[in-house]
């Protein structure tokens, strides 16, 4: 028997980007483990990714190209050869693009975060075709754009320095479920005497293990930050020197914050005034104090303003002076100058379609978060051409995009030509005309950066592609050849793409030897200011945005009283621990741990509706109806229900999932969906 170990990287949309060691016996991957030498991974993997062989060799893997034989959504397909599949896709795209290239829309997100299997050859292909551009907003753009407006980039603390913090605010993050390797450092800090505070409407497994839990109402984080500022001001817990030298615009925000007394803050947030006072005292008087902000808090209308307000806090108390103080929402901006995205994606190829002869204009941009509405739009001067073709890769929009009824109606359009590159027959693949089998991370080469740590990573293929599966890069290469795209870049193989992915400043020799390499970055990045803004200061007053304020939810008793009368419960839909968005829902051993789609509801709200624990319920609003099981208990706070996501519709109860209820209204900054800003009512279903 021949056994070898291959070094890889976890491709999933998770801040941890773990280093993997894959054991291969006679060409078959038998075990996937965490690399003990990679500091963030520290030899540990989450339950999901340690089951990688089960996902890879799943009997339902799509291993041949498929053509639809039944109605859209029926899941009836026949196998066809690669030649026939690619010829058909190329012919359809060529015909549509000849008339209206923007009628072709790529749809992709972070099924893999790899630089190659994400946007390299795919982006080249769509740029050369002249297809619509895609605004990739579905996850992080409210907080991301807000952070960039405030600090100048998506930059923050180094993950490993949290081990030395004395106070950690875990804010909008269920770290044990979705940022496990941060939690390891937080526990080290806890053992060394640090206090941990969790700020989350849901009593998560992370909240259980913190010293304190502040269960605020969804979408009130901006108010809480203003209330904390009030206390920092009146008690003079401010670092005046840091504020004067490294921020701009404090005077105007100071005035605003003085109106946010603990009582007013508490009333808006649905917590006690003492909770505001105590948190402010801890934050104002403990050094070093760190915030781990995560994207859970920005999926509401005011998510951008709230992110800005929270990001200002560490400047007010001078927390950045110490390497274990400050904040981390995303580290992805640190990689910006090391990533050769333009070389991989070649936006200049657009010129060949939209050059001077075409007036030099750019194609339109479709916002992925409003795909439900946009698929149903007709040609019009402000929208442009009706969407005629959709090419989906690395994403499962029918399950994950908001307002499912519209998304499903759009995908069900018989006149829409849909191609889906996938591992499995997801809800989206069920609506495809052609399904193309893609390789998994064990079968292809890739280069990764991270949004939760500061190591670049290399993923080597551990096994040969299963069946007839091909890497995304190869599929787009072959489509480009069929469309006659003759720019030499379309002949680049994956090795060539990998070599050009990162700048020469990254130690490629170390990357190749170890599979990972730490970026050369300062330890305490803003100890002396130096934010990557034009002035080098933290922009409390940001160009075009002004000074941040609390922005109430789209759907709340204050902003929509009539709606709240009919739908009195606020619903959030955070991730289930054993799924990753909608990935892994079809892995039986993981689905068995999750059991069934659940709605957590507080005992008082359940009693008022005659709902017993374990009973099947109907969760509804004007947009739709989701059927799931009630879990009655204290994980939900009064007035808020937690619909854990994101089930495949076809594996849920009555073919529904939680996005039946969410809407397509966007956030204040970043054009993102407000998944956790959603009013519903719940009723027991007769059993
Ligand atoms: N196991 C697992 N890990 C994941 C994911 C997954 O699906 N499963 N998803 C991955 C992805 S795509 C991302 S973007 C990352 C980060 O993804 P996040 O969405 O940040 O994931 P969570 O850490 O679960 O954080 C969400 C937390 O925010 C809370 N929350 C909801 N509304 C509010 C609010 O208004 N205010 C505050 N303060 N908290 C609120 C929720 O109750 C939940 O506990 O995680 C990644 N990791
Ligand atoms: N209600 C509600 N909705 C949400 C969220 C929420 O918290 N609540 N979270 C939102 C967030 S944070 C995000 S990031 C989005 C996530 O939305 P998506 O990015 O769509 O994530 P997944 O559901 O994990 O789907 C990824 C798909 O890519 C496929 N895939 C993986 N690797 C490859 C590959 O190499 N090639 C190809 N061709 N396919 C591959 C997987 O099989 C999987 O089906 O969902 C959002 N939707
Ligand atoms: Mo995400």
Model description:
With 687 residues, the protein is an alpha/beta fold. The chain folds into 3 domains: 192 residues, Rossmann fold (3-Layer(aba) Sandwich), CATH 3.40.50; 188 residues, Dimethylsulfoxide Reductase, domain 2 (3-Layer(aba) Sandwich); 124 residues, Barwin-like endoglucanases (Beta Barrel). It is 30% helix and 18% strand. The protein contains 25 helices and 27 strands. The strands form 7 sheets. It has a 6-stranded mixed β-sheet with strand order 5-4-17-16-15-6, with helices on one face. Strands 22-26-23-25-24-27 form a 6-stranded mixed β-barrel. A 5-stranded parallel β-sheet has the order 10-9-8-12-13. Helix 3 packs across helix 20, helix 9 packs across helix 13 and helix 12 crosses helix 13. The radius of gyration is 25 Å and the shape is globular. The N and C termini lie far apart (55 Å). The model has no long low-confidence stretch (mean pLDDT 97). The site of one ligand MGD has 34 residues, from helix 18 and strand 16. One ligand MGD binds next to helix 6.
Q: Which terms summarize this structure?
A:
alpha/beta, 687 residues, binds ligand MGD, six-stranded mixed β-sheet, Barwin-like endoglucanases, binds molybdenum atom, six-stranded mixed beta barrel, single chain, 25 helices, Dimethylsulfoxide Reductase, domain 2, 30% helix, Rossmann fold, globular
């Amino acid at each position: 028997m021949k056994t070898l170990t291959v070094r890889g990287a976890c491709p999933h949309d998770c801040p941890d980007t773990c280093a993997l060691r894959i054991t291969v016996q006679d060409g078959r991957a038998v075990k996937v483990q965490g690399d003990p030498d990679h500091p963030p991974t520290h030899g540990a993997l989450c339950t999901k990714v340690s089951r990688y062989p089960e996902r890879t060799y799943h009997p339902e893997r799509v291993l041949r190209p498929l053509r639809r034989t039944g109605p859209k959504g029926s899941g009836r397909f026949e196998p066809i050869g690669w030649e026939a599949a690619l010829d058909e896709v190329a012919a359809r795209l060529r015909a549509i693009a000849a008339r209206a290239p923007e009628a072709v829309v790529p749809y992709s997100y972070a099924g893999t975060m790899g630089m190659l299997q994400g946007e390299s050859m795919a982006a080249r292909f769509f740029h050369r075709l002249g297809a619509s551009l895609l605004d990739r907003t579905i996850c992080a753009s409210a907080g991301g754009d807000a952070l960039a407006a405030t600090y100048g980039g998506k930059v923050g603390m180094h993950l490993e320095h949290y081990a030395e913090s004395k106070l950690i605010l875990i804010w909008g993050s269920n770290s044990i479920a979705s940022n496990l390797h941060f939690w390891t450092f937080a526990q080290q800090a806890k053992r060394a005497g640090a206090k941990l505070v969790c700020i989350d409407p849901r009593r998560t497994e992370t909240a259980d293990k913190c010293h304190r839990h502040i269960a605020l109402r969804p979408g009130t984080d901006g108010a809480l930050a203003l209330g904390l500022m009030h206390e920092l001001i009146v008690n003079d817990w401010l670092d005046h020197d840091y504020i004067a030298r490294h921020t701009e615009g404090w005077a105007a925000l100071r005035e605003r914050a003085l109106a946010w007394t603990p009582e007013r803050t508490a009333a808006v947030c649905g917590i006690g005034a003492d909770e505001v006072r105590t948190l402010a005292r801890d934050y104002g008087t403990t050094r070093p104090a760190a915030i781990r902000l995560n994207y859970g808090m920005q999926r509401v209308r005011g998510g951008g303003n709230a992110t800005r307000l929270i990001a200002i806090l560490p400047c007010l108390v001078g927390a950045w002076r110490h390497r274990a103080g400050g904040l981390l929402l995303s580290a992805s901006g640190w990689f910006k100058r090391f990533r050769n995205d333009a070389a991989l994606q070649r936006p200049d190829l657009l010129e060949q379609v939209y050059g001077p002869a075409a007036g030099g204009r750019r194609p339109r941009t479709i916002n992925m978060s409003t795909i439900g509405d946009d698929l149903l739009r007709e040609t019009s001067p402000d929208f442009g051409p009706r969407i005629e073709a959709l090419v989906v890769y690395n994403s499962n929009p029918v399950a994950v995009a908001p307002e499912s009824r519209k998304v499903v109606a759009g995908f069900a359009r018989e006149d829409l030509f849909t191609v889906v590159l996938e591992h499995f027959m997801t809800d989206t693949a069920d609506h495809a005309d052609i399904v193309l089998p893609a390789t998994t991370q064990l079968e292809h080469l890739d280069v990764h950066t991270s949004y939760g740590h500061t190591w670049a990573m290399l993923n080597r293929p551990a096994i040969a592609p299963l069946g007839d599966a091909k890497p995304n890069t190869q599929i787009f290469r072959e489509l480009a050849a069929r469309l006659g795209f003759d720019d030499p870049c379309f002949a680049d193989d994956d090795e060539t793409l990998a070599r050009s992915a990162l700048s020469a400043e990254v130690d490629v020799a170390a990357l190749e030897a170890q599979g990972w390499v730490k970026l050369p970055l300062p330890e305490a990045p803003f100890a002396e200011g130096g934010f990557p803004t034009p002035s080098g200061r933290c922009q409390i007053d940001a160009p075009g945005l002004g000074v941040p304020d609390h922005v109430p939810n789209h759907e709340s008793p204050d902003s929509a009283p009539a709606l709240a009368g009919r739908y009195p419960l606020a619903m959030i839909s955070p991730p289930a621990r054993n799924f990753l968005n909608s990935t892994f829902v079809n892995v039986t051993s993981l689905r068995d741990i999750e059991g069934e789609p659940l709605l957590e509801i507080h005992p008082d709200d359940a009693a008022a509706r005659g709902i017993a624990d374990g009973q099947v319920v109907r969760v509804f609003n004007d947009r739709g109806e989701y059927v799931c099981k009630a879990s009655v208990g204290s994980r939900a706070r009064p007035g808020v229900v937690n619909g854990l996501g994101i089930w495949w519709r076809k594996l849920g109860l009555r073919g529904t999932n939680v996005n039946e209820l969410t809407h397509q209204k966007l956030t204040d900054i970043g054009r993102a969906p407000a998944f956790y800003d959603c009013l519903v009512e719940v009723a027991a279903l007769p059993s």
